[in-house]
Amino acid sequence: DLRKQARQLENELDLKLVSFSKLCTSYSSTRDGRRDRYSSDTTPLLNGSSQDRMFETMAVEIEQLLGKLTGVNDKMAEYTNSAGVPSLNAALMHTLQRHRDILQDYTHEFHKTKANFLAIRERENLLGSVRKDIESYKSGSGVNNRRTELFLKEHEHLRNSDRLIEETISIAMATKENMTSQRGMLKSIQSKMNTLANRFPAVNSLIQRINLRKRRDSLILGGIIGICTILLLLYAFH
């Protein structure tokens, strides 16, 4: 029963997290499209607040599901540690660990998506205020179109710079992960080399003993051959 509950909650969490991720992905593009489509600031702000409310609602629902799944995992842990199930303890521990890993992955994905959404919303609010200032300056101050176009181009350059910075950060994170992986490989190779280096003295000692034994056997064999030769010569002369 606990496993069925855990699987049901995991399925619900998976669907919720997919929708949550889609909301985060479409947030920026939706607000950009609505700003380009409408000249008034009323409609985008209302739609943005609607998306914010949807974000808060989905975040609360996902947190509740994570809490329920944590409670089910705790109950499974209590059942695993209880008396009367020693023969199935290993299998139950494996099942419990798998569900814990799934819970940890879902929790990590939720916090990551939530952080990304908040960062995008903060950036969009900042860009929205900049756009509003530009529009008010353009309509209220009576400056010529040439100057307004320069401001808009500068704003577009800032947005492109922001995208380039994000791409650079992504490349840096990937490089860091690769360097960490390579460092692990180098540590493994170094440990193997140290193991071989520690074994070499014993191998050298063994080879020296074998050589000494070969020399002794050669001396004994040469002595026996010499004695036999002398005896044969004495016998031949007599």
Automatic annotation (TrEMBL):
It comes from the Eukaryota. InterPro entries: Golgi_SNAP_su1 (IPR023601). It is a single-pass type IV membrane protein. It is found in: Golgi apparatus membrane. Keywords: Golgi apparatus, Membrane, Protein transport, Transmembrane, Transmembrane helix, Transport. One of its GO terms (molecular function) is SNAP receptor activity. One of its GO terms (cellular component) is Golgi membrane. One of its GO terms (biological process) is protein transport. Involved in transport from the ER to the Golgi apparatus as well as in intra-Golgi transport. It belongs to a super-family of proteins called t-SNAREs or soluble NSF (N-ethylmaleimide-sensitive factor) attachment protein receptor. May play a protective role against hydrogen peroxide induced cytotoxicity under glutathione depleted conditions in neuronal cells by regulating the intracellular ROS levels via inhibition of p38 MAPK (MAPK11, MAPK12, MAPK13 and MAPK14). Participates in docking and fusion stage of ER to cis-Golgi transport. This is Golgi SNAP receptor complex member 1. The gene is Gosr1.
